């Protein structure tokens, strides 16, 4: 079993680590680590889990996660990993909070940096022009080393500390309560749901998977996911429906039934609860004329 709390990827002689990822799929394991992480998706798509936030990801997505915030990027093509044909590409930057020494963040000059580090503990996603500029800056960091690299990383952090084009991902009440055994168990639940969300799943199935009673499983899931199991399944189904509406240009009725909903009325209700708009309004918003 892969450890949930991953060993630091940064060598002891380095202030930060920036590298490209070029793999069949991104690391599909539910895990966390002590470093701050900036992550850019260059190629690939699937479902992203950060804290209690569940959302589809695609090329161009950029997130900033703080220490010990659980996360996982699950590719749409995870079953093709062994075939080495569903390649995912990205850029990841790791660094510790005190990579410039312990006293810098205490200064008046670093107030914006302290604020953005605090926000990152719930996860941040950058949008609009900010995402475009940030992608360019992250790619440039790959070609720099030595003190020039540190200065460029500071440029990146200063840039994101000033932007307003971002969203906070995990909810205010989210706390990482996971132990290693819990992480593996939650990963098994997530994998089961991702493989079966198009059909009706019962609590008895999940209880058997986790060696719990249905009531115990419901309490356990809500404690660690900060939402009920039915809410989680709805988020997965609506995320899939969004991709069907936009990428495959399905109509609302097709997306509804292809995503595991049995009635159009419930689909419309859940869609609006999660996306804050109707399926038709969402589809029109992304249409290219």
Automatic annotation (TrEMBL):
The organism's place on the tree of life at top rank: Bacteria
InterPro entries per UniProt: Cupin_2 (IPR013096), Homeodomain-like_sf (IPR009057), HTH_AraC (IPR018060), HTH_AraC-typ_CS (IPR018062), RmlC-like_jellyroll (IPR014710), RmlC_Cupin_sf (IPR011051)
Domain HTH araC/xylS-type: 187-285
UniProt keyword list: DNA-binding, Transcription, Transcription regulation
Translocase listed as a keyword: no
Protein's name according to its UniProt entry: Transcriptional regulator, AraC family
Gene3D superfamilies given in the database record: Homeodomain-like, Jelly Rolls
